Amino acid sequence: LALFTIIGLCFAARVEVSWDIGYLEVNRDGHYTKRAIGVNGELPVPPIFINRGDTLVLHVHNSLDEPTSVHAHGLFHNGTAYNDGAGMVTQCGIPPGTDYTYEITPEQEGTYWIHGHYSGQNADGLRTPFIIHEREPIAEYDEEYLFFLEDSYELDFKDQMESVRKPYTKFPPKSSFPYALINGYNGNDTKPIRFEPRKRYRVRVINIGTTEWFKFSLPGHSMQIIEVEGVRSVPYPVDLLNLGPGQRYSILVEAKDTDEFNYVYNATIYADFIPFLRGLNPRQYLGAIEYKPGAPVATPAATADNELDWFQDIEMNAYDQMPLLEPVTKKIELHFENKRLNDGAVYSILDGVPYKTPKVPTLFSAITMGNLSTDATAYGTQTRAHVLDHMDIVEIELHNPGFLDHTFHLHGHTFQIVEYGPTGRPVGPIPPTKLRKARGAPIRRDTLMIKSSSYIKIRFIADNPGAWLFHCHIDVHFHRGLGITFVEAPLVLQKTTRIPAELSHMCLKQGIPASGNGVGKHGYDLSGLDPVPFCLELPANQTFDGFPHCNAVPS
After folding, report:
1. pLDDT in tens, 56-82
2. For residue 123, what pLDDT is reported?
3. Is 34 within 8 Å of 156 (Cβ atoms)?
4. What is the mean pLDDT of residues 256-267?
């Protein structure tokens, strides 16, 4: 073991990447030309590859007309929570015309991605895969391929938000039907992948989109999941992957014995929460698996989705056999709802009131408030802070009574998938989830999918002091308020972490306090907080859009 550690350190590298983040006009889906956000004048943003133990040195220059920040989705940032990149949670945004360098040395490996985490910039193109190669392969394979899947809309993110935030307008808004991008370009223009007979391939698949789901399959081929979001799994046979925004997998694929035929892979973009219209929802994209140029294309018999072996993470086990975390020392129950509040806008609510970023980055408050940092009220009402004790075993019970599926991402951690079940009364045509409980060593991941009319229980251990978002990864939902903050072990954090002076100065240059409570003041003086949207009771017969104020609108 000592020799292995020394060798690993000797070969650790500093991988330097420079990003000049700026605007550009693009037409990547073959249909819409629009302003997007790219890096060094190009889109897609090139993927980043490092080895475990390497240090990624990401130099960022902001050429936008607003602040920016960058989040490495799935990384823990133990001891360096200020590099998590969540705007106004772990840092102030990088101001226009200035620079910041993220130094990240992950003791993790697997399939991740990096994306903007300020003002919805992720949705406008600021996103790319981030692959950390293992020191020792997690399976025997000959080559690997990477697929990153995106939804592409006609409107940029600010215009999308305007359509759902505008007061007293119909909700939900008129459905839109995005196109799919595969590896950054129109899904129908993707280059073939090449297989050789009797070889074995690792295929990494990432949904880096903002709203839609993807089904991904390689018909006619045997597949096994071997990694879920950086966590090695006991191999799990599957016919079809179903990926919500932010989710990732590695699958092991067995090539055919001969090159007599070529095949196709299938990436279908869809959403259960918008109407089914043939050719629009879902949209199917087929790519080539080429064994031999010019060989005929095999057409495996069509199989209905409900006859395929779908991926069920509740059934999976982690390879390291970590047992179910217990006993639970902190339970948190959360319920989704959409409400039209006093300003006429519809908000997405997870914990009583909609989430909104504070006036001071939450991490800075946790580090500078002394003993007051253990009191959730000091962070401001809409920060939705939940304070965790060091090494708490936390169980979150998340209820989704509406008709929309969601994905939720926890920063700074992976969590065990413990239980699924039905909640509320069934809404819409999708049947509720049946009660399922994990067995053995539950798989861990950082981005969950919760079906409509369902609940999910997850568990994690509070072993990473910091300020960590837990939020819906459908970007429009998060920016309407669907999130909370975990302030984890703040008294330990104060002893172990210091905010770099450069980050404090970044705040002060923008007139943002770099210390104090949720508004940068001392004690419980929270004067200056924005008013919290509230329920405005109307006469029973007075409604808008068929829903009275303060009653839930469709989720």
Report:
1. 999 999 999 999 999 999 999 999 999
2. 96
3. yes
4. 96
Two tokens, residue 217: 């399959």
Contacts of 183 (CB under 8 A, 6+ apart): 44, 146, 147, 148, 190
> In sequence order, which ranges of 346-500 are alpha helices (DSSP H)?
362-368, 475-479, 490-496
Q: Which two tokens stand for residue 426?
A: 């069934």
- Sequence-distant (6+) residues with CB within 8 A of 309 are 237, 238, 239, 240
**DSSP element (H, E) containing 37:** strand 34-39
CA dist 258 and 117 (Å) reads 46
Residue that the structure tokens 């989710």 belong to: 247
C-alpha angle 299-302-308 in degrees, rounded to nearest 5: 125
Left if phi > 0, otherwise alpha if psi is -120 to 50, otherwise beta: which for 165?
alpha
The 10s digit of each residue's pLDDT in 210-257 is: 999 999 999 999 999 999 999 999 999 999 999 999 999 999 999 999
* Angstrom distance (rounded) from CA 418 to CA 265: 32
**Structure-token match 């106004």, residue found:** 88
Q: Is beta strand 14-26 parallel, antiparallel or unpaired with respect to 263-270? A: unpaired
Question: 77: which 2 tokens?
Answer: 């940032």
Which residues, 6 or more positions from 163, have their beta carbon under 8 angstroms from its beta carbon?
Answer: 155, 169, 173
Inter-residue contact 253 to 238 (CB < 8 Å): no
Does residue 428 register a pLDDT over 80?
no
Exposure on the CB side of residue 478, measured as CA atoms within 13 A: 28
Work out the widest C-alpha separation in the chain, in whole angstroms.
Answer: 76
Structure tokens at 51: 């080895």
Smallest CA-to-CA distance from 198 within 253, 257, 143 is with 257
Its sign, for the CA torsion 336, 361, 46, 184, is positive
The DSSP-derived string for 378-400 is GG-GGG-EEEE-TT-EEEEEEEE
Residue 160: enclosing H or E segment and its boundaries?
helix 157-165
In three-state secondary structure terms, 521 is coil
Give the count of beta carbons closer than 10 Å to the beta carbon of residue 124: 25
